[in-house]
TrEMBL record, chain A:
GO molecular function: ATP binding; creatine kinase activity
Organismal lineage: Eukaryota, Metazoa, Chordata, Craniata, Vertebrata
Protein name: Creatine kinase S-type, mitochondrial
Domain Phosphagen kinase N-terminal: 42-128
E.C. number: 2.7.3.2
Domain spans labelled Phosphagen kinase C-terminal: 155-397
SUPFAM superfamilies: Glutamine synthetase/guanido kinase, Guanido kinase N-terminal domain
The entry's keywords: ATP-binding, Kinase, Membrane, Mitochondrion, Mitochondrion inner membrane, Nucleotide-binding, Transferase, Transit peptide
Organism: Stegastes partitus (bicolor damselfish)
Primary enzyme class: transferase
Cellular localisation: Mitochondrion inner membrane
Automatic annotation (TrEMBL), chain B:
Positions of region (Disordered): 96-123
UniProt KW Nucleotide-binding keyword: yes
Molecular-function GO term, any one: ATP binding
This protein's UniProt keywords: ATP-binding, Kinase, Nucleotide-binding, Transferase
Residue ranges occupied by any Phosphagen kinase C-terminal domain in the UniProt entry: 125-367
GO cellular component, one term: extracellular space
Protein name per the record: creatine kinase
Database matches in PANTHER family: ARGININE OR CREATINE KINASE (PTHR11547), CREATINE KINASE B-TYPE (PTHR11547:SF23)
Catalyses which reaction(s): creatine + ATP = N-phosphocreatine + ADP + H(+)
Amino acid sequence: MANSFTRMMTGRNPAVLLAVGAGSLASGYLLTENAAAAERRRLYPPSADFPDLRKHNNCMAAALTPTIYARLRDRTTPNNWTLDQCIQTGVDNPGHPFIKTVGMVAGDEESYEVFAELFDPVIKDRHNGYDPRTMKHPTDLDSSKVTSGMFDEHYVLSSRVRTGRSIRGLSLPPACSRSERREVERVVVTALSGLKGDLSGRYYSLGDMTDREQQQLIDEHFLFDKPVSPLLTAAGMARDWPDARGIWHNNERNFLIWINEEDHTRIISMEKGGNMKRVFERFCRGLKQVEHLIQERGWEFMWNERMGYILTCPSNLGTGLRAGVHIRLPFLSKDPRFKKILDNLRLQKRGTGGVDTAATGDTFDISNLDRLGKSEVELVQLVIDGVNYLIECEKRLERGQDIKIPSPIAQFRK
Amino acid sequence: MPFGNTHNKLKMNYSSEQEYPDLSKHNNHMAKVLTPEMYGNLRDKETPSGFTLDDVIQTGVDNPGHPFIMTVGCVAGDEETYDVFKELMDPVIEDRHGGYKPSDKHKTDLNSDNLQGGDDLDPNYVLSSRVRTGRSIRGFCLPPHCSRGERRAIENLSIESLDSLDGDLKGKYYALKNMTDEEQQQLIDDHFLFDKPVSPLLLASGMARDWPDGRGIWHNDNKTFLVWVNEEDHLRVISMQKGGNMREVFTRFCTGLTKIEALFKERSHEFMWNEHLGYVLTCPSNLGTGLRAGVHVKLPNLSKHEKFGEILKKLRLQKRGTGGVDTAAVGGVFDISNADRLGFSEVELVQMVVDGVNLLVDMEKRLEGGDSIDDLMPEQK
């Protein structure tokens, strides 16, 4: 039922959808358009359009050669999304001095296949050598497998797990039309209205919320606003704002879904304190129920066994999962070995405002670095073990004892 | 290659009602004009280069309105946009340009001999004089839609043509991506440098893509004639100098434009122009002459007069701060320029500015002396 429904909605060749899973796609060539567009292509060979990336420092700029560009420039996905549209954000944003940004986005699920020649090396670069042509990504949302998930709350102030999900058959935020975006909203909000018990909640459309509702959501740190980052606006994700954008949260206020921000959906489970196990349990349960509810109506999430869950930015492929805590580490954060310890534990630190913010006082946001090549359970366990180790280090330093840098954790299984 | 949503054919699987934008909180010309029925009629059309209705209106959908200025809310991606989407563009043009009808003809007059006077605006009050316009090169897509290859071709053509200028127009090109720090500082000090647009009105239309590739500034050695390449339009042409000799500024403007046009023609390119819309530019507000002739003028007393706004309206002039549009006046100095672009010729518009500014200065002098200005009140032009 899902297949025939999505076929009807998208008009896409079902063979293309199957080929996505099989890992090969014969051609993305679509001979559309009229004489004028064809003439322009003749007048402007790919070399005329190749972007000037000499001052750029992002994954796309490192991988894109004139040869690859020439092969891919005139291809389109079934939705007529092009390479230039994928890379526009990376052309317009040469780079962050400290963070190597990705520099490209997908407009739809097929982008990752039609433009595989560029996406594959970018994925490898970003995900530590993961090769989507040869490797398989494990998906595991069985939260019962996680152990020791209760942190010392003298140090851990809050725990949070987030991911994203895309609705198969609908274009992604850089490319979607208004009706597709509204369809995403309708599909997801309808499904969420079926959640019960501790997961039952309500939806707040960004365009329709009252001032009071808005202030409440801001105070709870739930509200998202129109992106200002040029990385996002250059990719076209903010078009038609705030049409079909909104926030859903459960009545208990610990399970939250963003609709049509940077992805179709972002799913967040969070609570104060250190009970990461409970946060992850609710996360998995909520995700599975939402998936079931959309499947009842003939929809499914974008997923395949090589890239896991498909999201707009290649950096979020696989699990799309970021599990983290806000944690106080007054001693450890001043220790010169802090960074190395984090690196070896495959953790990253951010300020408490999220990415690109500074830490306030001694409180840090600590989360997993990886997204692809390890399952959700593996990544959350890694965060749990890592944070417990950091707390041990903190306690030892408090007592005047020495700490050890742990051995580096292995990369994904082959 | 297409930008943004251009070829989203999947849209057509959805009904017009499902795609129609929510314009309930909007206040711009496009939002006033675009009915669901019109949207339905135009949504499956595209220009030969692939520009669609949604591309035209995206900036107006993303930017509901400016508190003080009624923005246009739509742009052209190529010359044919004004034809393929005339059902939308015509009423927007009529609304924006004082009732200009689809059947009206626009007069072009770049013969500065036809201007009367204008060489003696009182320099005690008029600090500087400036005339600007834009030009588009026929056969290329406009800034919201052009590819990198097209933009670079426009830049190369412009450099070639401008390099051939001689006499007092002889000058040099500074590519935005190649300039040295010294060159950049000099251009900033001269108030010549333009930077990547930050206005969401411009960004939402896609004009800033690939910045600073293909963008640059050309100016003559005398620093009185300046061309911006690939900013908001293919070319923006500016003639300016200190003082009140608007006639000289306009003469140089006309001479320079005419020469540039000839140089492009030598290379088998012409400017986008037709007898209904005059010169075709990216924003409908700049159609016709695309001309803004203005002065920086000291009017500390007149600007406080209760009838200042009314006087400007009658003279068909508008005021801005000395930083340009959306800025405030500093020290009683205003930027005063023509309000119209389409339906009047270049000479007619500059004449209005010359005559109008002379009157404003007379009024200022009267008010300085404590005298009334009632007998100087103008008729509606």
